[in-house]
Each structure stands twice: as structure tokens, then as C-alpha cells.
Amino acid sequence: MSMPLDSDGFLRRECPTCEREFKWFSSPDGEGATPEAGGYFCPYCGIQAPTNSFFTAAQIELAKNVVLRDLVGPELEKVGNSLPRNKRPGDLVSIEFSATVPPKMDPLVETDDMRRVDFECHPSEPVKVLEAWDRDVHCLVCGAPAARR
Predict the structure, then answer these.
(1) Which residues of the chain have a pLDDT value below 50?
(2) How many CB atoms lie within 10 A of CB 35?
């Protein structure tokens, strides 16, 4: 499942601690800086969290929809097709099965919002933060605050 990037190549994320949205630069595989053992740091609150915990609510909902439609749905259909169709005289048990798969969600769309912040410590890992954010912005990789301009 792919996630949309803004026109500058940034992917929307959400801090699992402060729940603020930001964007990190989506560098090609193997070209980005490796985060510390505990994961990435939130640019807002500076708290470190595992790399896979920064999904937005919309991204999680889309992922659930894809799993239900593309993986669970076909398996449920197989189960339904494997059950006996007709109850025969003398059968003690009758099985009825029904399952509904949710409709396909619209793909996510990424807007060109937020302002870019670059870091001296990890120049290949810029972020975008809310335009109105006027406090320190922390580096995703090491947690150091960016130099204020």
C-alpha cells in the first residue's frame, strides 16, 4: 500500500505522544539516516517512539480497509463457499454464513501545507511542521533542536 507524498516528497505522519501531524522527507530506500535504537523523535514534543508508530489516523483506516477488502474478504468468501449449501432431511444442524466487506475507501490525497525545517545534524532528514509552530523543532533522527532562524 502506498502513501501519497506532497509535491516536495514529504510524507504526512502523526506523533503517537502529542498527536500532532508533521511530515518527514521520504528518501529512497537505503538513503535516509538510520534512527537510534528506540526509533524516531517527534519534531514537536521531542519524545522518541518506535519507527512504525507514526501513522496518521487516516493512514491506519486506509490500511484496515485494504486488509479487510484484499485479505480477509477473499478468505471469508472461501469459507462461505466451502459450507454445505442445502440442509438435507435428517440433518441436525443447519449453517448459515454471511459476511460483508467494507466498500473501497478513496485513496489519500496529500496537500502542500506546512513549513520546512532543516537540521545541521542530519541534513538529509528535513521535516515539515505546522506553519504556526513557534517552539523548537526536533530532529527525527537524534532529537536535537534545529537552529532557529
Answers:
(1) none
(2) 19
C-alpha span between 9 and 139 (Å, rounded): 18
- pTM strictly above 0.85: no
* Total domains, the chain: 1
Residue 81 has what pLDDT? Answer: 74
Range of the domain at 73: 1-149
57 CB-near residues (< 8 Å, 6+ apart): 14
Closest among 147, 144, 57, 45 to 105, alpha carbons compared: 57
What cell does 145 get?
533542536
State the first-to-last Cα distance of the chain, in angstroms, to the nearest integer: 37
Residue with cell 523548537: 136
DSSP secondary structure of 88-136: PTT-S--------PPPPPPPP-----SEEE--SS-TT--EEE-TT--S-
Q: Give the C-alpha separation, 45 to 72, whole Å.
A: 37
